[in-house]
């Protein structure tokens, strides 16, 4: 029996456009905040990396907190949309603050300014917005195919935005003057764009009534649970822990790719290549996302597609290393594109896999924790992205890099090569290993059979 359809094409596109707003923040921050702070403001990369790491420790528990708050929210707009809508206002303000460190302040005050702005952005506002946005996948439809389509639309917009941010920002800043004021102006423009698009996205979908979401539940009354119990529910779900692991590794991967601006500038001697490599990364990802829903149907689920995709990604990144030591930029770009093509399916259907993980908790624990379950999205982004950016700063400091110097030591050049060529390959191998064990769909089918629940009932 065919699943009930809940969404029109414009709902899916409207939802997906929300990742324009998310990546105006994320892509800009992860790709350029370190180079802005080291090369324009003149801060030490090691200290900046340490501040980012400390920030991650401080905001490490806010993900589950906001996920739990979403689950407990009852409003006319639903559970998640209010958090998505209003959380982004804070994102816009603090994004600008991260790129508006006053040059007139002393060094200690500049470090403090960045630390406070960065912590508020990641630990509070981005967390609330991103978890709510991700949770909508479970709250606006119960159709598994529509969830995959939502994820594909979402990440098509995400990677398109990342491509544009990475491709145009260096030139955009240069045209605005290339100084601290130019970075601030670009940040303001990106923040305004994000604020407008996020509002449109939040209003383009409507959450299902709670009674419809809970249809088929074994108990007629919603079970209450606190933050501690929510945490226990999550750690009992092995698939949640796996997804958190892949998110963290993917953000570490992205941080190293973002550090490519140092590699292009100092090793390849052409910082404009950073934008060209952004095309090699994002265009294949977008192509893969377009075909992901069809491939999921062809291979009867997401497990085989995701695993085979990452096998291709590992092969691609290994060949990037070879091409890098050969000194062939065209081959590096070609193999970068091959790796990105393999990474695409997991990016597109990941939210649908998280929805299946939420279903796994319901089948094993008898509790709905949709909002809390999607805390893995923000948790992984913050921990992985934060640690990744911090590691970039630490490794550069360790290698003797000084952003304001005209010439860098060979130790720094070797470190940039290690970060851009070897670390992404290592992270892809680890992700491939985790995906080889993440067959949550088959596990849920077995649980349903054991409980005598039909597939249609469980999907509804």
Structure description:
Helix content is 79%, strand content 0%. The chain contains 20 helices and no strands. It is globular. The chain crosses the membrane at residues 20-37, 43-62, 83-105, 111-132, 153-174, 180-200, 239-265, 277-297, 309-341, 419-440. This is MFS transporter. InterPro entries: MFS_2, MFS_trans_sf, Na/Gal_symport. Keywords: Membrane, Transmembrane, Transmembrane helix.
Q: What is the number of helical segments per DSSP (H or I, 4+ residues)?
A: 20
Number of strands: 0
Low-confidence stretches: 217-222, 456-460
- Strand residue percentage: under 5%
Structural class: mainly alpha
Distance between the termini: 12 Å
Output the helix-strand order.
Answer: HHHHHHHHHHHHHHHHHHHH
Arithmetic mean pLDDT? 88
**Radius of gyration over all CA atoms, rounded:** 22 Å
Fraction of residues in H or I helices? over 70%
How would a crystallographer describe the biggest sheet?
A: none
Outline type: globular
List the helices and strands and how they pair.
Blueprint: H1 9-16, H2 18-41, H3 45-58, H4 62-72, H5 81-98, H6 107-139, H7 144-175, H8 180-203, H9 210-213, H10 227-235, H11 238-258, H12 260-267, H13 273-298, H14 303-326, H15 329-365, H16 370-373, H17 375-399, H18 410-435, H19 440-451, H20 455-459
Helix pairs in contact: 1-7, 2-5, 2-7, 2-8, 3-6, 3-17, 4-6, 4-17, 5-6, 5-8, 6-17, 7-8, 7-13, 7-15, 11-17, 11-18, 12-18, 13-15, 14-15, 14-18, 15-19, 17-18
